[in-house]
Amino acid sequence: MLANLGWFNLKNLTGLTCKITSDCETVYFNSSGKIYYSKEDLKVAIWYKDLEDDKVPICYCSNLTRGEIKEAVDEGYTTAAEIRKYTGKSITGNCLTENPTGKCCHQALADEIARYSN
User: Fold this and answer.
1) Can you give the pTM of this predicted structure?
2) Residue 69 DSSP class
3) pLDDT, tens only, 33-76
4) What would you report as the CA-atom Rg of the chain, rounded to the nearest whole angstrom?
């Protein structure tokens, strides 16, 4: 996890784990539970904590938001490649430093597409 999320840089959070659930305010924590960061500590919205926020990025590399994905699906685009082309947001490959989980956003993007395809 190396993304810059406002007032701290995840490079300094070695040993912390992401809590990828929307039902709790904790975003990052360590195994002892003595060090943690909540949503209030961050300046950038986190996709897995803000499930109804259309402005939250799903792809942090190109700042592709939930609302843009929803709009593209409404227009009939159903794949990540189509949505990236439609929105013009095609920067990828910086997940390690941009995504709050330090992982690729492809699964999160696929989940969002499926969420709005129904």
Assistant:
1) 0.71
2) H
3) 666 667 677 667 777 777 888 999 999 889 999 999 999 999 99
4) 15
